[in-house]
Design goal:
By secondary structure, the protein is an alpha/beta fold. It is built from 12 helices and 16 strands. Strands 4, 5, 7, 8, 9, 10, 11, 12, 13 and 14 form a 10-stranded mixed sheet that branches. Helix 5 packs across helix 6, helix 7 packs parallel to helix 8 and helix 9 packs parallel to helix 10. The radius of gyration is 21 Å and the shape is globular. Bound molecules: 2-keto-3-deoxygluconate and magnesium ion. The site of 2-keto-3-deoxygluconate has 11 residues, from loops.
Length: 405
């Protein structure tokens, strides 16, 4: 008798930060894990999975991965969006994990086998001012990392995305009853950031990949100016320069600068990035396994990107759990146009909560060779009582107008 999905569990937990994890168990006892975390909206996706998707999975053949994807996508009149696509993504990743365990193969082997020995990565460095930033840049370089995202404070602002003032851990989601409100001043930022990044380049010399995340905050012409100003620095990429829902904004930026552009961490399907990829308006597509429909859908996005000379570079902050990161690293091992995987790192308790075979080695990521994803759960670190609502901040301009955070 073919094996069937027998048990669906949705674990909302908080091993120091919130995660939503899907665990599927088959009648033969094979377990698959998926990540469904949507930072700041965890309970919405948990309910979508528990109340609407879970009951439909019971009794299904876990080997019919593509059919299940299509059933959950096309079988719902109300398609797309981060909640539905994170739920589909979690199911998809859990089914791939089950397939790996049933066949005794690491996921990368099922995805076509290794095309490289290791997956390139980048780490985050931040500092309120240049000396503080350089300390973190140096620490990452000493640890062997060759690509570094650099974020800095802005004179006149109290809080800036990607930077903690005391140079300790940066985590944007606060465990607060309502989002914190930050002031954003694009002009002040544009006056200071090119000099800071040029200062980093002068310090590190050539040969280190420098990345910077604008976090969707500029107008197209401001973004074009920043790209131009950074050309002498030779950036690895400039990320999310304008709000992601407007592909034509990137066309304008592209007309003015040769600085490589990356975008896509908030995209949920191939249709969100089709125009950007087909028109070659970006260099790197940043979709995450968790938010864009899982491994099956990311493969299609990356295949479209390959045809158009765009490279894959998935999102990997701490709100993408070690389960999704595992899936992404396996994709990186098996996907030809996979350029780099973001690795922000996790608090120690997160590593303990999700013991994983993937690891950092010599400044790169390795998937490990365990069957499936190679991730397990430490049961007592996934207690629902630990969950506390958390919100990402919102941003306002100096005159009080709400703007993109
Ligand atoms: O939850 C929001 C984070 O995922 C986002 O702010 C991180 O932009 C980000 C990045 O590039 O890691
Ligand atoms: Mg980003």
């Amino acid at each position: 008798m073919p094996d069937v999905i027998d048990r669906v569990e949705v674990l909302v937990s908080s091993p120091s930060r919130n995660y939503v994890t899907l665990r599927l168990t088959t009648r033969d006892g094979v377990v698959g894990l998926g990540d469904a975390t949507v930072n700041g909206r965890e309970l919405a996706v948990a309910s979508y999975l528990r109340d609407h998707v879970g009951p439909l999975l019971i009794g299904r053949d876990p080997g019919r991965i593509e059919d299940t994807w299509q059933y959950l996508y096309r079988g719902v009149y109300w398609r797309r969006g981060p909640i539905g696509m994170a739920a589909i993504g979690a199911v998809d990743v859990a089914l791939w994990d089950i397939l790996g365990k049933r066949t005794g193969q690491p996921l990368y082997a099922l995805l076509g086998g290794r095309v490289r020995d290791r997956v390139a990565t980048y780490r985050h460095a931040f500092g309120w001012d240049l000396p503080a930033l350089l300390e973190q840049v140096d620490a990452h370089r000493e640890a062997g990392f060759e690509n570094i995202r650099v974020q800095a404070g802005v004179p006149g602002l109290d809080v800036v995305y990607g930077v903690s003032r005391d140079n300790q851990v940066y985590e944007p989601a606060g465990r607060v009853a309502a989002p914190a409100e930050e002031i954003w001043d694009a002009e002040a930022y544009l006056r200071s950031i090119p000099g800071v990044i040029a200062g980093v380049r002068a310090h590190v010399g050539d040969g280190v990949g420098l990345l910077h995340d604008v976090h969707h905050r500029l107008t197209p012409i401001q973004a074009a100016g920043l790209g131009k100003a950074l050309e002498p620095v030779g950036m690895f990429w400039l990320e999310d320069v304008t709000p992601a829902e407007d592909p034509d904004a990137l066309r304008l930026v592209r007309q003015h600068t040769t600085t490589p552009l990356a975008i896509g961490e908030v995209f949920n399907t191939v249709w969100d990035c089709q125009q950007l990829i087909e028109n070659r308006l970006i260099d790197y597509i940043r979709v995450a396994v968790v938010h864009a429909g899982g491994i099956s859908h990311l493969r299609k996005i990356f295949a479209l990107a390959e045809v158009h000379g765009v490279q894959a570079a998935p999102h990997g902050p701490s709100d993408v759990s070690p389960v999704s990161l595992a899936a992404s690293i396996h994709l990186g091992m098996a996907t030809h146009n996979f350029a780099i995987q973001e690795y922000m790192g996790y608090p120690d308790l997160v590593h303990e909560a999700f013991p994983h075979g993937w690891h950092v080695s010599g400044g790169h990521l390795q998937s490990g060779d365990e069957p499936g994803l190679g991730v397990t759960l430490t049961e007592d670190l996934h207690r629902s009582d630990d969950y506390q609502p958390a919100y990402l901040p919102v941003a306002r301009r100096r005159d009080g107008t709400l703007t993109d955070w």
